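Hi team,

Filling in the usual template for the complex we talked about on Friday. All components are listed, including any nucleic acid strands or ligand strings, so the model treats them as one assembly.

SUBMITTER: L.P.
PURPOSE: interface mapping
COMPONENTS: two
RESIDUES: 682
SEQUENCES:
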Amino acid sequence: MAHAKSLRRRVLREAFEENYQTMHGIAAPSVHRRRRMRRLSRATVTVAAVAAIFGATYVLASRQFSWTPELADAKTVLLVPPPAQRPGRAAEPAVTDASGGPMAREVLPFSVRRVVIDPGHGGMHRGTASALGLQEKAVTLDIAQRLAALLEASGFDAILTRSTDDALSLEARGELANAVEADIFLSIHINWFSEPTVRAVETFYLGPTQDKELQRLAARENLDSEMALGEFRHALERVYAGVRRSESRELAQVVQRELLKSLKTINPWVEDRGVKSAPFGVLISTQMPAILAEIGCLSNSEEAQLLDRADYRQYLAEALLEGVRSYALNLNPNLNLGS
Amino acid sequence: MTAQKEVLNVGVDLGTSRSAVSASNGARHLVLSYVGWPLDMVARRVVKRDVLIGDEALDQRLMLDLYRPLERGLIKEGSEREAQAVRELLKHVLSLAGVDEARESGAEVRAVVGVPAEAMRVNKQQLRGAMEGLVDSLMIVSEPFAVAYGLEALLHALIVDIGAGTTDLCVMNGRYPRDEDQKTLTVAGDSIDEQLIQLVRDRYPEANFSGHMATSWKESGGFVGELSGKVMVTAPVKGKPTKFDITEEMRTACGGLIPPVVEAMLDLISRVEPEYQPRVRGNVILTGGSSQLKGLGAALQDSLQEVGGGKVRVVKEPAFVGADGGLAIATDAPDSDWETLAG
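RESULT (copied from the run log):
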C-alpha cells in the first residue's frame, strides 16, 4: 500500500518535471529551490524591473542591431543586465596576435558554461519539410529542447532562443545570445538536398564561401534575416578575422566529429560533408564562438522517418551534447561536468 | 485563517475521433471531435448557431464548413480555422465539465490532458497555447500513462491504447514513461476505415456509401480472426437500399492491425529487464475506441504464445479510461506542482 503510494508520488513528480521542461525548456527546480524561489519572488520582480530598464537602455543605446518586435518576446534579453565587455572575450574582433593572425587559444583561458541553443526557423518560417509533412522547425525545436535538458543535467547553463513555435529574426537570436553573455552559440538545422538519396551531416562556422551550393544553402537559411544588405556586408567584414573565427571552427570540428561518431553506429549511411565556412546570417550577430549544424536531412525519406522518431531525436541531442562537452573539456580540462 | 480555494480537477482525453472529459464534480462527457461553422447565411438561419460541435456538427455537416481538428491525436497544423476549431472543441469539452461555472464562482481549474505517447514537445506547446486562458493550470501527459495511472497499472504492465488516429503502446516500469518505454503507431481505427472503404469499393463498385457509414459498419461489426455469422450492411445502389456481405473485407481490414501492434508489443517487452518480462506479458491492458473489435484481445494474447504466453485484458469502458486517469492525476498531483504549472 505504502509502496503503491510512493510509486504514484514518484511518477507524478516525473510527469510534473516533464511539463516544466516543456514550458521553460529547462529542468524543473527542486522542491526546496521552488520554495526558496517563491520567497524570493517579490525581490526578483523588483530586480527584474531595474534590470529591464538597464537592458532596454543598453539595447537601444548600442544600436548595433535593429530592434525587432520578436525581441520583445525573448523576455530573457530584457531581464538581464547589459552585457559587460569582458576583457579578452571572443567578442573582441580586434584580438589578433603580433602577426595579425588568429591568437593562440592558450593565451585566452576560455571556459564554457552558458550555451545558447538556437532551434532553426519557427512560426511562419517552417524551414524544409519531408514529403510526409514533417517540418524542420518542429524537429529543430524538439532536439534543441532535449539538448537543453541534457546540458542542464551536465552542469551547463542552457538557454533556448525560442522555446515555442514562434518566428524570431536571425538578428534577434544572435542578440539574445549576446545579451545573456553566452559562451557558445549552437544553431540547429535540418538540411534538404535535391538528390533524394543523399543523407549527410555538415557543420558551419561563419566565413566566406565560393561554393555555389553553400551560397544557396546560406541564402535559404538567411530568409528570416531583417538585416539590410549593407549591414550584412559590414558585419561580415567585421567578424571574419580573429580568435572567434578560429574558436568557431574548432567548435564546429568537434561537434561534427561527435555527431558522426554517434550517428554512424545507428545510421551508417550518413555522409560526412565536413566542416565548412559560409555566410549564415544567424552567426553574424553573435559575439561568441558560433556554429550552425545541419544534423540531418528531410529530403531523404528514410532519414525523415528517423527524424520523426523520438528516440532518434534524443540520440541526436546526445551527440550534440558530446560535441559541446568535448569542446568545453578541450578548453578547460578541469571543468567540472557531470558524466 | 484563510479559506481554502475551491478547486475543480478535470481530466481530458483529446482524441482524433472522440474526446472525453471527467471532472471532480462528477461530470463525464464524450464528444465527437468535430467542429463546424455554417457555410453561409442560409445555413446560419437553419442551424441557428455560430458554431456546432460534436454530434450536432456531424449531423448538420452538409450545411457546415466541417473540421476534425485533431490528427493522430494532435493539433493539426494548417489554417487559422483549424486552430480555432481546436480551441472551440476544448472550450466545449471543458464547458460540459462545468469549467465556466467553476471559474465564475472563483474556483481554480486544474486540467490534465493526454496526448499520444510520442508527441513532440512542440506539439505539447501548441496544445498549451490552445488551452491558454481556458484553465488555470495545465499538465500534459502521455495518454497511455493517464490510462495506466487510472487503472493503477504503474508497474509491470503494457498499455495498448488503440484510438482512431494512433495506437499508443507504453510499458510501465514504475516510472513516468520515457521515450524508450513508448511507441506510437499510425495504424489505428482510421487506417482500418480507409482499408475497408477501399476493399468494399473494389468488390462492390455500384455501392454508394460514405466514410462515416464505413466507420459505423466497423464499430458494429468489426472483428479479428474467425466469425460465426456474416457482416451484412446496407448501402444504396442508384438510390435503392441494397444489402452487401462485407465479412471478408472486414476481416482483412481489421486483421491488418495485428502485425504492427504485435511487433511493437514484442519490441517494448524485449526492452524490459528479462526477469520482469513474464509479469509484463501477463499484464497487457487493451484500451481505446478501436480496442472493442471482436476477437482483438484474443488475437493479441495468441501472439504472445511465441514468447512464452501472456494475458491481455480488454478494458470494458475504454471511452473514459484516459479522461478518468487524467482526473486521478489532477487530483493526486501536489498543490505546489500545480502552482508552478499555472499560467
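MY TAKE: The beta strands of chain A are 114-119, 157-160, 184-191, 200-206, 271-278, 290-297. Chain A has two domains: 2-62, 106-331.

Thanks, L.
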